[in-house]
Amino acid sequence: MGSNMRRVAAVQMKGRQGDIDYNLGHVKELAMEAVAQGAEVISLPEFFTTTIVLHEEVKNCSLPESKNQALDLLIDIATTHHVLIGGSYLERRGTDVYNCYVLVQPNGTVTRHDKDIPTMVENAFYVGGQTDGHHETSYGRVGTAMCWETIRTQTVHRLKDRVDFLMTGSHWWTTASNWKLGKIWDKADEQNRRLMFATPGKLARLLGVPNIHAAHCGEVEGHFAVFPGGRGKIPATTSLIGETQITDSNGNILKRLSAEDGVGVISADIDLDDKRVTPTTPNDFWIPNLSGLSKLVWLQQRWATKGIYQQLKKSGNL
């Protein structure tokens, strides 16, 4: 037995876009299942208040910094059941919105991490933050990161030798299933799924600590922006890849839920002090070797959706 052996849990949800009340009820049920399994640490996905896609229903889904229903729910769960719980939602601070990972301790202490760079269409809904993802808690030093933040080397540099375990979350899409573009598109989708599968363990190995990773599953309907400001939108049907995983500090998967497994909770007993000697951090911007197509879509979507954020901000629809 390790010196800090704890039962931890990760949640895989199937959310509804724009339906905050439903999603919070869904998350609460899953969190209660984790509590019933004896979990002391509960990891929720990125964007647990709404799935993110270019669609009218996602407008006006940001929540204020304090006295909002998502934060209140996490505080209630943490303090009532004496657990450490965290996940992300769109949080409005001042005149801007951030993808904010909120971590709540059993005594009600709240700390935050804002995702550094919005991924693709996410540029339409929030701006990047400046926090480092490091949290001091009664369970140890926690590192938090979200989705494509977990495949960038700057995340490793921020957290290396500063954390005891990771609580990460994702909202990772497939390629559009309604686009019939032949073998190159099918290959891109396969590569994307393999990348998501490998990411939680890879980050755990690079930081030498366990990783508790939560995710989404289910289909999402929206649009793909072709030109700046969202002009020339194309309908896109994608699915969320899942891959909720609990890994040890070597990146070995202890428990896993694939997208095909659907909604659920996984739990495992892990030593939160189980640290390993870490390999040299890659020097490239990306941790994995992303395909040229992935890099192209990343750049194109950032270019095409950035103006949407300014439009929504000006009209008061963030």
In short:
27% of the residues lie in helices and 30% in strands.
What do these coordinates show?
- With 318 residues, the protein is an alpha/beta fold.
- The protein has a single domain, classed as Carbon-nitrogen hydrolase (Nitrilase/N-carbamoyl-D-aminoacid amidohydrolase, 4-Layer Sandwich).
- The chain is 27% helix and 30% strand.
- The chain is built from five helices and 13 strands.
- Strands 1, 2, 3, 4, 5, 6, 7, 8, 9, 10, 11, 12 and 13 form a 13-stranded mixed beta sheet that branches.
- Strand 11 and strand 12 form a beta hairpin.
- Helix 1 runs parallel beside helix 2.
- The radius of gyration is 18 Å and the shape is globular.
- The mean pLDDT is 94.
